């Protein structure tokens, strides 16, 4: 099984359109970005599909997947209408084409996913056993289609791995879990609860092993080798016998191992997670199964995070794995095509990722890139080093009441030579032009050199990135650290403090170095003391008083000056982008009077048709379906709503335009139509060839 398309609209914070070619889908993003919501949405979809209650799914979606080697299955819900297709042919029913198994491995303490999507099917299974017995129709052996596995299944997972004779499973138990020998396996059976299950394969298996409570591994293997059940079936029977609260046939399994008689509680949290993953992939899922793994690498040691990819590898031909993660180590082991960034419920367009990768790939990992993309701050400060960020943060915490108009986030580029190329890459690609980006250089020789290249002077205090190809720049600026009064030497961030603060750090660093100078050159010693002094000052600055940050006002005043300068520049731009109502005569005359290109967008669940003219003018056509909702970062929300009430009809999930509207901005047009915050050149598509509109700028 392989999911090729996944569109989810208006489930919690999600508005996602995902196209996939990989057997692993790795969702990365900050907390609240919507990663776990995708797992919940998929669970909700299949929970209803398995029960033939698809019309009860409370959101619109499209899911398309390859199944059985040669079928393409598609399920799409729009409002109250749902379509099933297999190889593009409409079907009335697709039960035989649904995943053989959905397996969720969840790391959180929250039970919402279990309660909504997995427990009901489990209880339906238990009730089905009893109904089957009462009706005399024979043994009920269908295993629930959705299995939910969390920390309570460690012992079941370990037992099945130990029973297996597969070479890779034996290696996993010995090398990853460190098990050398098994001393005993003890079962805690609840015979009083057997009646809840009547006659079934689950009960038959439990009856097979409850002849005594304690076994050696060889004794248990012998019994299992002579029974008619496979290990995959045994795993599921143990799962079913153990799961129902207060009705368990099996209360617990205690496995003692190695010379010091360890048990499962002696595993690290990471080892427990690894055995859950391995057992789930080995026993829980059939071919054409879907695995949903919520932070499978949580608590796993860095060296073992790399092993997760290796555990997946042998199962990927016939299974789809969707996982969420916070780990750069894990994502670094995955192919680029497997990675999908989320930001407040939306997928970050691959174009944005490619842009940021091209300008930051050598010094930022995927999570740092995602943090940059996801930042909601209107001002972004680009700094040379990590100490710059610490000192600026601490200073602003002390002084922020004096600067209510400043709201920024700091990002470290690890060197002055990276600031101008980074800014230039953002500028050339129109990367989130609604923000203000300021590069901050040390006021020293290296900073002077970089500050003199690629910038043009605005005034004596700051510069802006040089414009190219008549492309306006209202967003990209640079400054050097201002020197406090009386300072004529090179100025780094530490120079903004009173001298005695840095002297204290130097004294501490020198004292710490004494006794550790053997076999070190004078250059090594002085460099070491310098770096440690910087670290000490950085830590000490957390406890400094307001007056200790007085010279940082020079820096914040500069940032404020640039902010006000940019605001004045944007007033004219905003005015130029204002929407005009189009008279009927103009609407009729425009297409014939000027050359135009037909364009469209379906972003954020819209269906928008438009005409692109020269000079960046765009006419959105009557009949287009515009988004009702707008993202948090969309500017004039109230004005848009008032305007649309006059020129569009409100339907169940969209606005339908009654007349054409004209924009003088490519991005302004698409953001108005979608309620989003995106680059129009990237997201308007040319009807003739489905290429982004920016294609015409490259020709």
TrEMBL record:
Pfam families: AAA_15, AAA_21. Coiled coil: none annotated. GO terms for molecular function: ATP binding; ATP hydrolysis activity. It comes from the Bacteria. Gene3D superfamilies: P-loop containing nucleotide triphosphate hydrolases. Residues 1-223 form the Endonuclease GajA/Old nuclease/RecF-like AAA domain. Residues 258-332 form the ATPase AAA-type core domain. This is DUF4357 domain-containing protein.
